[in-house]
Amino acid sequence: MKPRRLASIIVKEFIHIKRDRPSLIIAVLMPIFLLLLFGYAVNTDVENVTSVVLDHSKSQQSRELVANFANSGYFNFMYYVNNRAAIHDLFAQGEAKAALVIPPDYAQQLHRNETPQVLLLIDGSDPTVARTILSAGQLIGRVASLEVTQKFVSGKGIKVEDLPGIDVRSRIWYNPNLESIRFNLPGLIGLILQNITVMLTAFALVRERERGTIEQLVVTPIKPAELIIGKLVPYIIIGFCDFLLVLVVGTYWFRVPIAGSVPLLIGLASIFLVCALAVGIFFSTVARTQLQAMQMALVFIMPSFLLSGFVFPRETMPLVIQWVGAIVPLTYFLKILRALILKGAEFRHLTGDITALTVFTILVIAMATARFRKHLD
Prior knowledge:
By secondary structure, this protein is of the alpha/beta class. It has two domains: about 50-175, abc type-2 transporter like fold; about 180-375, no CATH class. About 65% of the residues lie in helices and about 10% in strands. It has helices at about 5-20, 20-40, 60-70, 85-90, 105-110, 125-155, 180-200, 205-210, 215-220, 225-250, 260-285, 290-305, 320-325, 330-345, 350-375, and strands at about 50-55, 75-80, 100, 115-125, 165-175. The chain has a five-stranded mixed sheet with strand order 2-1-3-4-5, sandwiched between helices. Helix 3 links the parallel strand 1 (about 50-55) and strand 2 (about 75-80). The longest helix is centred in the middle third of the chain and has 29 residues, at about 225-250. It is elongated, with a radius of gyration of 27 Å.
């Protein structure tokens, strides 16, 4: 090994890196981006969980109980409803994770030195959040019961076993045993579907360009939109087969049944599939080499993994990070998957996520078509 030749190779490689500007930018900015992303997004602490209050008592005592739960920092009561159906709708839409139900005679039972039963409903589709809410609710209930006991015995000489208290009973919906697989499997379906389709189509046009066949397509009368759609259709078929495969394996091998409508799930998965494929096609129109296309795909996949709610609850992320996650299509598809598979949600519960996913799909296809038209011009 001669140092002079080695130095020449090193200089030559630096020249290539300098000429490949997109790769250089990604190589410099990606470590910083991922460091900031992991630093803010990786947070397993559960707090300020969006919650619901169904207060049938509407008394001073019931308001004090709600305040005790709110002051703990675990519960953020954003909704006050009048019936159980409203709680079910909020849970199905993913707008709330817990609900506190106070009986009508709550205050009267306390005055009669009896023990009223307060119900804490918990959305168990996310076991991490559910376990924390369950533990916090039980602890807050015991503390509130102790406060009632202390008030009652103040200045009275009675037996401890005769003292009143509060009996907080919990029920966990959708995932009573808090099995992690029931939460992870819908997310895995969405993540696998996205990663496969984006990677497949990210090389579609780049491969044509590297082989020199893109020029042959340019001189034909094929329009940009036709070429984009023509490139998408084969991958849509492949991606759809992949989706059905992982859905069947998840249902029968891991024994996670689909609680909602299967045709609705397949239809919405098709929309997401087209969206993910269009993202890959867009990368293919921007990249000049297959290496650049792969780098772009990886830069897109990593934030999707972190910010979509696949692993970490989005509620625990800073507001700015939540806004960034809101522009990731997988965020909405994961909510749809978990709502349909775990909660048995209906179309009316998913209109917001369906609308966002459809808008993203249309925008990405339009961007890919416009970008490819520039190459034709």
